[in-house]
Design a protein that fits this description.
2 domains, Helix Hairpins, mainly alpha, 58% helix, rod-shaped
Length: 177
């Protein structure tokens, strides 16, 4: 193992990724992706050991069972290097082929309640906002569906309210006063 890799293995994961202590999940993930894009990934000519250290730092910060007071610099054993994995995708493919996330049940409920009709649209809007919050916390899928559904729900609800208000106003103008 090189001196540089040994030095990196004893560094704090916050220093490796360049995130502040108490950084949120999204900050850690963005920092990891930024480091990978900066040429540290082996597929782009980076060093495999350096990239493994970045992966360890990410995993350590994202692990909810990790003690908050753990001091990485006090670790005495060097990490075991693993050989880089072969890339199963062809080199010409640049798409992210991660498996799709599980769809949030609240996202599905938003669509189902929205289809019940204008009376249920306000309830569907509330469920939609709850679904967005749930998706943000859990990382489940369905964010785009919920956003599109909320857009149309707001649009249709405003139209229905305007139409109802105009009909009520027209009816009250025709009533003998």
């Amino acid at each position: 193992m090189t001196v540089e890799a040994t030095r990196h293995s004893r560094r704090d994961p916050h220093d490796i990724l360049g995130v502040p202590r108490g950084a949120g999940r999204q900050q850690v993930i963005q920092a990891f992706r930024r480091k990978a894009r900066q040429g540290r990934h082996p597929d782009t000519g980076g060093d495999a050991q350096t990239f493994e250290e970045i992966i360890r730092a990410r995993d350590e910060l994202l692990n909810p069972a990790r003690p908050a007071t753990k001091n990485v610099s006090s670790r005495r054993t060097a990490p075991v290097a693993t050989p880089p994995k072969a890339n199963p995708r062809p080199a010409s493919s640049s798409r992210n082929t991660a498996p799709p996330a599980e769809i949030s049940k609240l996202a599905i409920a938003t669509g189902v309640v929205a289809l019940l009709g204008p009376i249920s649209w306000p309830v569907a809007i509330v469920i939609g906002h709850l679904a967005l919050r749930h998706i943000g916390r859990t990382g489940k899928g369905g964010r785009t569906f919920v956003r599109v559904a909320l857009f149309f729900l707001y649009l249709f609800t405003i139209y229905a309210l305007a139409l109802t208000l105009s009909l009520v106003t027209a009816a009250s103008d025709r009533m003998p006063g």
